[in-house]
Amino acid sequence: MIWRIRLNYALGSIVSAGMLSWPNGRPSYVVLETIGGLDMPWWVWPVALLLGAILLLIARGRIWLTGAYILTAVLITAIAAGVVLSVGPTVQLGPAVAVVMGCIRQGINARSEVA
User: Fold this and answer.
1) Of 54, 97, 98, 100, whose CB count within 10 A is highest?
2) Residue 113 CA to chain centroid, in angstroms?
3) pLDDT at residue 1 in the model
4) Which pTM value belongs to this model?
C-alpha cells in the first residue's frame, strides 16, 4: 500500500517534468523562468521534479521519506503557483492543491512507516 502511494506521487512528478520539458507544446511560464530576478533555464524545473521523484522512490527510513514527501509538496506548490501566475487560475489548480495536501499528509504519516 505504501509503495503504491509513493509510486503515484513519483509518477505524477515524472509526468509533470515531461510536460514542462515538452519542446513545442509548452507555454511560456514566465514566473518559473524568472524567479527573484534570476533568469533560469527551462530545464531547471523538470530536473528538480525528476530528482524529487527519484528521492521519493529511493528514500529509506522515516526521516528521509518525510523529507522526500515534503520536497515533492514544495516543488509541486512552486510549479503550480508559477503556472497560475503565468497562465491563469483555470489550469488545474484544484488537482494541484489536492496533490500537495496529500503529499503533506503522507509526509506527516511517514514516521509510522517501517522502511
Assistant:
1) 100
2) 22
3) 47
4) 0.77
